[in-house]
């Protein structure tokens, strides 16, 4: 079986994108797909009128971390994938505040990218790279959030929104279901309503995220 290439847009602070990225890595490790890791800013897409854009601040929680990712991505897609996996595990599974620049410095040094934070922040083109990814996702695919996956052939889907990430044969079955969406280019939404039990399950799954974040989530209505 020949691996197909997908684009995966993410914000490292999004718990849903992290769960989906674990599923994507499972598919990659099974040689089902190859992944191009792309950036998307929830801070920008959900910007409150009158507030500064994330690139106008000295340090923005998700945006500045993605600038570090952009600097690392210059080495390879494998390198930025390793960085995202490490950030995601620390933040979403162990409640480590990777949005703190000093904590982020320690993390990238531990995984083999010493100096990456300061190098990324000193290089304005890393902000250009993050913004280019974000703007492309919005303009080309109508993106309003993450996870966003561009399937082989260019069909973009929001999701799958799932926790925990499926593994093994279940991961492959989900992949085949998602690929089937390409047959219906004007199928825009398919949602499972959340019961009280579902909300409790999500809250438990995202407990480290809720403990580690330093903000209140703001989400503008999706188109």
Short description:
The chain has 223 residues and is α+β, with helices and mostly antiparallel strands. The chain has helices at residues 15-29, 42-45, 61-73, 77-94, 101-110, 116-122, 124-141, 168-180, 196-205, 207-212, and strands at 4-10, 33-39, 148-150, 156-158.
How are the secondary structure elements laid out?
Blueprint: E1 4-10, H1 15-29, E2 33-39, H2 42-45, H3 61-73, H4 77-94, H5 101-110, H6 116-122, H7 124-141, E3 148-150, E4 156-158, H8 168-180, H9 196-205, H10 207-212
Parallel strand pairs: 1-2
Antiparallel strand pairs: 1-3, 3-4
Helix pairs in contact: 1-4, 3-4, 3-6, 3-7
Structure description:
The chain is α+β, with helices and mostly antiparallel strands and 223 residues long. It has one domain (4-212): Glutaredoxin (3-Layer(aba) Sandwich). 51% of the residues lie in helices and 9% in strands. The chain contains ten helices and four strands; from the N terminus they run βαβααααααββααα. It has a four-stranded mixed beta sheet with strand order 2-1-3-4. A hairpin with a 5-residue loop joins strand 3 (148-150) and strand 4 (156-158). Helix 3 crosses helix 6 (116-122). It is globular.
Radius of gyration, in angstroms, nearest whole number: 17 Å
Strand order of the largest sheet: 2-1-3-4
Q: How large is the count of helical segments?
A: 10
Describe the global form. globular
Main CATH class: Alpha Beta
List the secondary-structure elements in sequence, H or E. EHEHHHHHHEEHHH
| Strand element count | 4
Domain tally = 1
Mean pLDDT: 96
Instruction: Please estimate the helix content.
Output: 40-55%
**How much of the polypeptide forms β-strand, as a percent range?**
5-15%
Low-confidence stretches: none
| End-to-end separation | 37 Å
């Amino acid at each position: 079986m020949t691996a197909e290439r997908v684009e995966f847009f993410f914000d490292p602070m999004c718990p849903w994108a992290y769960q989906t990225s674990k599923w994507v890595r499972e598919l990659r490790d099974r040689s089902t797909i190859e992944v191009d890791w792309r950036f998307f800013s929830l801070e920008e897409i959900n910007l409150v009128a009158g507030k500064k854009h994330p690139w106008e601040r000295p340090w923005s929680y998700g945006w500045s971390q993605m600038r570090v990712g952009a600097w690392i991505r210059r080495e390879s897609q494998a390198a930025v994938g390793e960085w995202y996996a490490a950030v995601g595990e620390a933040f979403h599974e162990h409640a480590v505040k990777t949005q703190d620049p000093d904590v982020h410095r320690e993390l990238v040094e531990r995984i083999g990218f010493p100096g990456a934070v300061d190098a990324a922040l000193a290089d304005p083109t890393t902000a250009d790279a993050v913004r280019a990814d974000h703007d492309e996702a919005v303009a080309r695919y109508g993106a309003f959030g993450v996870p966003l996956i561009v399937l082989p052939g260019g069909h973009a889907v929001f999701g799958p929104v799932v926790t925990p990430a499926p593994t093994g044969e279940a991961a492959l079955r989900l992949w085949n279901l998602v690929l089937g969406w390409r047959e219906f280019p004007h199928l825009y939404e398919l949602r499972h309503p959340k019961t009280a039990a579902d909300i409790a399950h999500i809250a438990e799954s995202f407990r480290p995220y809720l403990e580690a974040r330093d903000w209140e989530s703001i989400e503008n209505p999706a188109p």
